[in-house]
Amino acid sequence: MLLSDFTVQNVAAGAALLGVTSGVLGAFAVLRGQSLLGDTLSHAALPGICLGFIIAGSRHLPSLLLGALAAGLAATLLMFLLDHYSRLKTDAILGSVLSVFFAVGVVLLTWIQGQAGTAHGGLESFLFGQAAAILRGDLLLIGSITVAALALVSLFLKELKVTVFDPVFAATLGYPVALIQAVMTMLVAVAVVVGLQLVGVVLMAAMIIAPAVGARQWVNRLEHMLLLAAVLGAVAGVSGALVSSAQRGLSTGPVVVLVACGIAFFSILFAPGRGVVWERQNRWRSSRRLRTRQLLTTMLRLSQEHSDSDYATEEGMLNAYMGLGTRRALRRLESDGLIKHVVHMPEEGSHWMLTGAGREAAERVLRELGRQ
Amino acid sequence: MIEAFFNNFELMIVLTGALVGIAATLVGSFLVLRGNSMLTDAISHSIVFGIIVVWLLTGYASGPVQVVGAVLTGLLTVWLTELVAGTRRVAYDAAIGLVFPVLFAAGVLLINLYARDVHIDQDTVLLGEIGYVWLNTVTVLGYRVPEAVLTVGAMVLVNLAFITLFFKELKLSVFDPGLAVALGFAPGVLSYVLLGLTSATAVASFDAVGAVLFIAFAIVPAAAGYLLTDRLGRMILYGCAISVASSIGGYTLAVQWDVSISAMMAACTGIFLLAAFLLGPRYGLLGRVLRSRLSSSAGGDPSSGKLAP
User: Fold this and answer.
1) pTM for the full model?
2) Residue of A nearest to B86 (CA)
3) CA-nearest residue of chain A to B35?
4) What is the pLDDT of residues A218-240, one digit of tens each?
5) Separation of CA B279 from chain center
6) Domains of chain A
7) Check: complex ipTM more than 0.95
């Protein structure tokens, strides 16, 4: 069995932790309209990881993650400065910080590789993620980071919520808005730190966004969204980890990301009420309803104009009034017992007249319209 | 003498870096102005997918077929992003962040499955190897010229031709898209051509600088130029000058410290951005602080931003 394999257990547990963390913490970034923050912060983590390695002298995970967090902090600070004191737009700031930090990271990485005598022990694995390299001890570390971050979120949920949705109101309540926003950005950096080992810097972007976007489609309350994002993230993580270990040669990170994005796209299409498919269907239904109501009222008015309650309307005339193709709508009305088919004069084609129920339905429609 | 020029591998590396920077800045300037910088991020990552698909289909790992494939992949990325954002269930930036990782992940998995032993390996895809450009040469008019110099040089010419021919239209579509539509300039088509050229430039630069560092060359010099001037032409010119300077400076430092050359070049663009941010003549932080000090002590108008005589 897959799950009895020790490595697979580690990877699945790590992926679940990653899913929960990035789902919950990413939700705030997505709701604040800063979806690509995760992308920038994950690339920006690379120089921090390298510095952590240089200072610790080995692949000591706590030092690496601390370095990543410090680099995230530096990147956040720099983005804040550029945002407030330069005229660059957000996207240029994100892109510049992303690429320059990453470049510095690669410089440091190659410097480490060039140093004789150091065991540079697979720092490259952080580029693409190397799930199999996760050890039990690592799990304990990223597990406690996850718990700490989630505890912070649940303790200050009210403050975070107000700041996300209405920063101005939050300021009038006396909340330290800038601080809370900075904390939310740092939380994304924390999620990045948890995920780097597993999915690597490039694909981290999607792990921040996908569970949150998926969850948003199904629910309307922040609390529900956070819970669902955690669940979706964990599902994507675990199933991705299992698929990639069942099929030899597939990296874990890309599979996890494909599952997570698959869930997001599925939700965008099919989530009840909000999904694109639902909206299409609703629109189709309401246009169909509108068409039958138009037919009924037209026929009622015609019979009133002719002062003949049994007035038979010619189908060709209805087509001319409403554009072609009234046939299907007429058949629907007929099967609902609202109109009936009559032969007025054989050579003049189909004619239709309102039944008693149809007349009532048409009058009801007109009354409703009158009220509006 | 010309032969000595092309045989000087140091010069060839610096030249390649400078050409990548110039080609990228020519298109990147417009993306920075339009607020579309992160599309370069998306495109340069997702053409990994294009490169591996084209390789699987045709067996070419570089050359014109790859450039065409990259253009198509880049446009596919943009189209998919606009499709997802067009559902209005997610913001545009979230759509970017959903689409390109999917293509990138699919590309990496295809490499995992079918291309373990070919020259397209994952590190090269992200980082490139500009130090080796002079190993891969072609003979033109009897001279051995690095292939990268030729392909990136061609992209410089194509991009230059495009923005020279359509300068007026591009300028208008950047600064007043509404008027551009009203005058019938088809900014939509123009935008797709611009992004297609960005993709082509990205794939031409791939072997040299890789996916992530291309972003630095496309955005950072242009952003620095934007902080230095208000004129579009000058902004592009400054961006190109910064690219050349970064290429030279990056090469020198990289050799000194024995680190990745392309990454050092990209890091140098960051230094120029920081310098422009702090020391820029009009928008620089330092200048603004000094001016507001001076004018408040001289009782002048702080908003005029002019130094008291």
Assistant:
1) 0.86
2) A276
3) A91
4) 999 999 999 999 999 999 999 98
5) 24
6) 2-257 (1.10.3470.10), 278-371 (1.10.10.10)
7) no
